[in-house]
């Protein structure tokens, strides 16, 4: 009987706990399992759980029927969670613009939003985001095929605090939209435009020195556009993997003006010439990692320039460079004093004896036969709120 009395007394005490007190308890729960269990206790505790929720993530199910059901319930969940800081709706292709109206409930608290592969979202939905979430810092719009410069301009005008923006495969984006981002968001430091074939690069003209990370894989940047890309002077990482050329000419020598560049990915840049390699090597004194894999236009003069100027280079990728020869290896032996790793495989003019001689001359350099497709910092980390 005494035990039952104590249980009833404890239950009554819990019932009279204020929301602030319950929220304090909730915030001390570390596991998501415990947090969910807290919300299932009763309606009031569910309300407190929703208030305390800081992050909401929907995982792509690859099931169109299930994704449609998720899309229907998202507005209700968002409306009940007014203090969200991070939202990921990645992969919900059926998500309509109307679902984003509820983002206004989180309003000023929301700092990170991922709409990755939400192909149903249009400029109208992005306008709602811009109105309701003025303090966004991180936005992912990769593969949102229906977003154009109009939506991007709306977002940039409403979210001046943006620092990281992923526009990968947004085929409706052009230089006009990119220019709007730099005109309205002076703190942009990370930008991804991979696969945006309508961007020539001139939209970067006058970009802020804050821009230090740029992914522009499989783009068609013009010679003038490349010059504008580096105009801010702050780039430390640049990925131009598989850069196309509408003229068939090499304009990569413009990268010599990127004085702060530390990591450069030029893998499969087939129009790259020795002149541009020499310009980059002499103009970018802080280069630490350089990917030149599958660049057939680099010959002895290019390797000679790397040997002469790249005094801080630690990692060099030359996989499947058909015009690197054993004489080029000898040049690299005599230069690049800080070289630690050389990725070299599939180079038809290099023999086993040549590699052995290099190893004897430079035992401090690790020769690796693998081919690395992605170099530099992890994109996931760059788009993760701390």
Automatic annotation (TrEMBL):
Coiled coil: none annotated. It comes from Digitaria exilis. PANTHER family: PARTNER OF PAIRED, ISOFORM B-RELATED. GO terms for cellular component: SCF ubiquitin ligase complex. This is F-box/LRR-repeat protein 15-like leucin rich repeat domain-containing protein. Residues 86-212 form the F-box/LRR-repeat protein 15-like leucin rich repeat domain. SUPFAM superfamilies: RNI-like. It comes from the Eukaryota. CDD domains: F-box_AtTIR1-like. GO terms for biological process: SCF-dependent proteasomal ubiquitin-dependent protein catabolic process. Pfam families: DUF7885, LRR_6.
């Amino acid at each position: 009987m005494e035990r039952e009395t104590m249980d009833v007394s404890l239950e009554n005490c819990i019932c009279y706990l204020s929301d602030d007190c319950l929220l304090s308890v909730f915030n001390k729960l570390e596991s998501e399992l415990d947090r969910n269990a807290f919300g299932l206790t009763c309606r009031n505790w569910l309300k407190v759980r929703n208030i305390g929720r800081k992050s909401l993530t929907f995982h792509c199910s690859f099931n169109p029927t299930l994704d449609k059901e998720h899309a229907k319930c998202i507005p209700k969940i968002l409306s009940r969670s007014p203090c969200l800081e991070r939202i990921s709706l990645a992969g919900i292709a059926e998500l309509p613009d109307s679902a984003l109206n509820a983002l206004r409930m989180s309003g000023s608290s929301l700092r990170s939003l991922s709409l990755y592969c939400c192909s149903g979202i249009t400029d109208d939905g992005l306008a709602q985001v811009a109105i309701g979430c003025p303090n966004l810092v991180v936005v992912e719009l990769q593969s949102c095929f229906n977003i154009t410069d109009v939506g991007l301009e709306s977002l940039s005008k409403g979210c001046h605090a943006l620092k990281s923006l992923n526009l990968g495969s947004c085929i409706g984006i052009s230089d006009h939209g990119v220019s709007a981002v730099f005109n309205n968001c002076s703190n942009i430091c990370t930008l991804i435009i991979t696969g945006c074939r309508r961007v020539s690069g001139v939209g970067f003209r006058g970009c802020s020195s804050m821009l230090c990370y740029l992914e522009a894989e499989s783009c068609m940047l013009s010679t003038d556009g490349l010059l504008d890309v580096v105009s801010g002077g702050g780039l430390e990482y640049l990925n131009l993997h598989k850069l196309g050329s509408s003229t068939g000419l090499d304009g990569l020598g413009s990268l010599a003006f990127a004085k702060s560049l530390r990591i450069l990915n030029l893998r499969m840049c087939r129009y790259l010439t020795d002149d541009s390699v020499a310009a980059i090597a002499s103009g970018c004194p802080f280069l630490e990692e350089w990917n030149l894999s599958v660049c057939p236009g680099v010959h002895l003069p290019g390797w000679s320039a790397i040997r002469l100027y790249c005094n801080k280079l630690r990692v060099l990728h030359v996989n499947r460079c058909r015009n690197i020869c054993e004489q080029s290896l000898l040049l690299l032996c005599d230069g690049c004093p800080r070289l630690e790793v050389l990725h070299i495989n599939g180079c038809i003019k290099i023999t086993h004896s040549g590699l052995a001689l290099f190893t004897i001359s430079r035992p401090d350099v690790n020769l690796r036969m693998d081919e690395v497709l992605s170099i530099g910092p992890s994109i996931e980390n760059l788009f993760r709120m701390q």
